[in-house]
Specification:
This protein is α/β, with parallel strands linked by helices and 415 residues long. The protein contains 14 helices and 15 strands.
């Protein structure tokens, strides 16, 4: 069962699951959401042993982490990192992940890492006047340079703060990508990884949103939309939940054999009080999208992505299109009022699919086990959150930029 759950990442060339499963990772928390998202994603990835020091965690996300991975163990210590005498807490740990928001902890973590000759992954959310963003930096002995100053919080001591949940999702995913590389002996980024934009003003009106695809991207798009205050969401997806989905589709731990769209909408409604609906069917040329203000493309095949692009262009609908591989992805925004290309045109999907135009998609559903494409949680959560962030920027009256993510590059997020 556990091996089946991790099947999609075990298919990645050079993947070393034992390095993840047999390691202990320590986390310094502060804002409960960022730390809890990291815990959830780490559990889904198959990191089985976490030690977390922080004031609190999100109970629902941590419970989900426990249920999605039967071998998962978390030791949560409620408190703050305030003195080097507390370093025994991190005994036996591999990398230390610092998600805290006060300078005392940041400096203690760097000092502990330097003395131990270990690795520190630092990730946090920031807001500077009218801009907000994330920063991630991997520190080890020998990297005592200017970037260290930019990863130390402005607040010397703990202070009540609330992070942006969408930015937290991106930061948690990139931090986990760096932790994965540390544990597997891969190359970590040599740069300060950053993503920023003007801070959105809020969603304003109550948009009606269609999400095509309730799988990996769809799960995190759903979470980001709900956290952003979007209440009217419809999911369209005919597929059922299989065990190989569970390494990245975080809502489905106990729903094997059920419909993805139905399960996702029901769980979103229960947790957030949304009015999400579902359609257990394929997106086709005659699918009616007239009632929706925007469409999220979260599907995993080129033909349907082309069809969605054409349908939104013909119907004058805003489209946010996402695609992922184990190491890369893109979040592309299309506004029919602009003269820009559709996502299918921009990404060259016609050439990839070998077609000029898609008039109909009649995909015969086969179990995911017959199409075993490698996939991990990090790229899916990062791209999904970037898609939601693009929509929030649009709702604020600004034009979002297209984002390309490459986990093997130093900067990781490109535009």
């Amino acid at each position: 069962m556990i091996e089946d759950r991790l099947d999609r990442q075990l298919r990645i060339k050079g993947w070393d699951q034992a390095a993840l499963s047999n390691s202990r990772v320590c986390v310094l928390g502060d804002d409960d959401l960022l730390a809890s998202l990291f815990v959830l994603s780490a559990s889904a990835l198959g990191i089985n042993d976490l030690v977390v020091l922080g004031p609190r965690l999100d109970g629902d996300l941590v419970e989900n982490a426990r249920r999605i991975n039967p071998k998962f163990s978390i030791s949560f210590l409620e408190g703050y990192y305030t003195h080097a005498a507390m370093d025994d807490i991190f005994s036996g740990c591999g990398p230390l992940v610092d998600l805290s928001r006060y300078a005392l902890a940041n400096k203690l973590a760097v000092n502990r890492t330097f003395r131990a000759g270990s690795t520190l992954v630092r990730a946090f959310i920031y807001r500077d006047r009218d801009r907000a963003g994330i920063r991630v930096f991997t520190y080890m002995r020998g990297r005592e340079w200017e970037e260290l100053g930019s990863i130390v919080s402005a607040n010397n001591f703990p202070k009540e703060q609330r992070d942006d949940p969408v930015l937290s999702t991106i930061a948690a995913g990139i931090a986990l990508e760096e932790v994965k590389n540390v544990l597997m002996g891969g190359r970590v980024s040599s740069d300060l990884i950053s993503y920023s934009r003007e801070a959105p003003d809020g969603v304003g009106a109550d948009p009606n949103v269609l999400v095509v695809g309730a799988g990996s991207l769809g799960n995190f798009v759903a979470l980001g939309l709900a956290w952003s205050g979007i209440r009217r969401i419809t999911f369209i997806d005919p597929d059922i939940i299989e065990v190989a989905n569970l390494n990245r589709q975080i809502f489905f731990h106990d729903a094997l054999g059920r419909g993805k769209a139905e399960t996702l909408s029901a769980r979103l409604n229960r947790r957030f009080g949304t009015t999400a609906e579902h359609l257990a069917r394929y997106f086709k040329h005659n699918t009616d999208i007239s009632s929706f203000d925007a469409v999220f493309d979260c599907v995993d095949n080129f033909e349907t992505r082309i069809l969605i692009s054409e349908k939104c262009a013909d119907s004058g609908k805003v489209l946010i299109s996402g695609g992922t591989s184990p190491n890369a992805g893109q979040a592309v925004f299309f506004d029919p009022e602009s003269s820009g290309p559709t996502p299918a045109q921009l990404l060259g999907l016609y050439e990839i699919a070998g077609k000029r135009r898609i008039d109909q998609v009649e995909r015969v559903r086969e179990s995911c086990r017959y199409h075993p494409d490698p996939s991990v949680i990090m790229t899916n959560q990062i791209i999904a959150a970037l898609m939601v962030d693009a929509f929030r920027i649009h709702l604020s009256g600004r034009t979002p930029r297209n984002i390309f993510y490459d986990s093997e590059s130093d900067g990781k997020i490109l535009s």
